[in-house]
Each structure stands twice: as C-alpha cells, then as structure tokens.
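User: If only I could read backbone structure tokens as easily as an amino acid sequence. Underneath my words sits a plain record pairing an amino acid chain with its backbone structure tokens. This is the protein in question:
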Amino acid sequence: MLIDTHGRVATDLRVSLTDRCNLRCTYCMPEEGLRWLAKPGLLTDDEIVRLVGIAVRVLGVTEVRFTGGEPLLRPGLVGIVERVAALDPRPQMSLTTNGIGLRRTATALKAAGLDRVNVSLDTLRPDVFRTLTRRDRHQEVLDGIAAARAAGLSPVKVNSVLMPGLNEDEAPELLAWAVEHDYELRFIEQMPLDAQHGWKRESMVTAGDILASLRTRFELTPEAHGTRGSAPAERWLVNGGPHRVGVIASVTRPFCAACDRTRLTADGQIRTCLFAREETDLRAALRSSASDDEIARIWRLAMWGKKTGAGLDAPTFVQPDRPMSVIGG
C-alpha cells in the first residue's frame, strides 16, 4: 500500500494529463497563459497507463481521477480511459474538466468506462464568465454539463470558486440552479495555487461566507456524522434532502488528517500533497527501463515521507512553484 508515517493510506490517484487549458481563469493563470510543458517531457499514453496499472495492481489504488490543465485537450483521453477500465481490479474513474468539449465526448467517455465527471462552473452569468475566464464560452460549458448527465456520467458534480467583487454573491443562485437540474454543487475555497502568486488569505471568500450566503435562501442540515470519510467536501442536505451541497475548505477547514490522495503530474512527477514543494520523478525510472516493482518502491518511499499537513496556517508557508494547471486538480 501507499502508506505514510502518520498511518494514512493513499487509495485515490489524481492523474494530470496535460498542463494546457483553453480558459484563462483569473485565479489560475495570467491572461497570456503559461509556458507549456514541452511535449517530449510529457508522459505518453502508454506510460500513463503503465503507471496507473502499477498504482492499481500493486499499490492498492481504487480510484483514479483524470485532471489537467484541461484533460479534454489530451488527444488520447478516450483510449487511456478504456485501457484503465480494463485493469483488474478495475478502479473507479472520474474526470475533472471545464466542460468545453464535453458535449462532443461525453458519450464516448462513458462507453470507454468513465464513471462520472466534475465540471468547473463559477457563474451562471455569461458576462461574469467572460471576466473570470477571459473567454466567451459559457454556453459550451452548460451544454457540456447537460451532455454528461444525458450520457449517464452521474452524479454530475459542479465545482464553483467564488471570487470577491466578481461572483461572491452567486452562491444561492448557483445552488438553486443545481437543485433544479439535479447536479451536485460543491464550492471550493480559492487556494494559493495561482501562477501569479497573487492569492491573499484576507481577500478570499471563505467556507463560512459561503454557508452564510446559502442560508439566506436554503435550510442546510449537516450530513450524518461519519459519512464524510476521506472526501474533501463537507456536505449538507438542502431543505431536508435529497439534494446536497458541498464545501471544500482547504484553507480554513483543512482535512489533511484524512487525506487519501497521491498525485501524478503530466510530466511524471509524484506529489504527496497539492501544496507540496517537493516531487519524486517516476518518468526517469520509466525511461531507464525500471521494473514495475522498482517503480512501486520509489512511489512507496515518496508517500512514506508525506508531511502531516499542508501547513497553510504556518508563518513559514510558501506557495508551490508550480501552479494548479501543472500540478493537476
């Protein structure tokens, strides 16, 4: 297993397929974009499938989530999903996406074996979407979310980040829309993972702010004690259920003690934490003909050294050099 010195076992693998994205969200990257990873440095489709296979067959991983950047920009995505679905044991598979292009690919992804999707949508207002993402593609995202539900990629989860002065007043509106369409909405606190390093704790919209806003329109009841497990979202029943809303409060209510995740970047680096400043290179081992057992040994050693927590409250906290688009969501 992928166990650390604090007794946590990593069973959830996040796999970044690319650092590229077709949006330029203000909390993620600058308007001009970033210097993308060079293609020779990216893992090939075969290398990704091999590493996921080692994680599943040897290291006890049971859930795989494909992320980016924007994973729908990966040309071999459907084939990767199909090959991972053929592993024994078969892991649960999900995809985190901005939804652009999902209308065209949802049916193929479902047929390949994908179980569900998380789609990022921060606003229901096209003008605010343009300001936040610097792109005019709001309707494509809405269409992609609807296509995912029609294809059976359920439950369809929608992730929203609220930004001060832009969409911080939209929490009740977003939840009403999610309830109407039977999507599961999750609000995510803005995290210090932007390429510009412009994040400031004092200006972020907190979980407390989000819940107070939601309660102006909805009755929220905490889910039964013990149902959260290692899930990052705290969840509430909306008006008694059955609909739920979640809040991922990585900054103000960290959940490091129950973390069960390990991360693989698009260029083959293992990260033990979203906010880690250290990485372990698996790509070099792959390309030097290392055996599966040797790669598993390197991976285990990396996870053994996982820190107690992300340390966001520590005065010594330093934001990772690599932004979210490179690390993977």
Remarks:
- The chain has a mean pLDDT of 92.
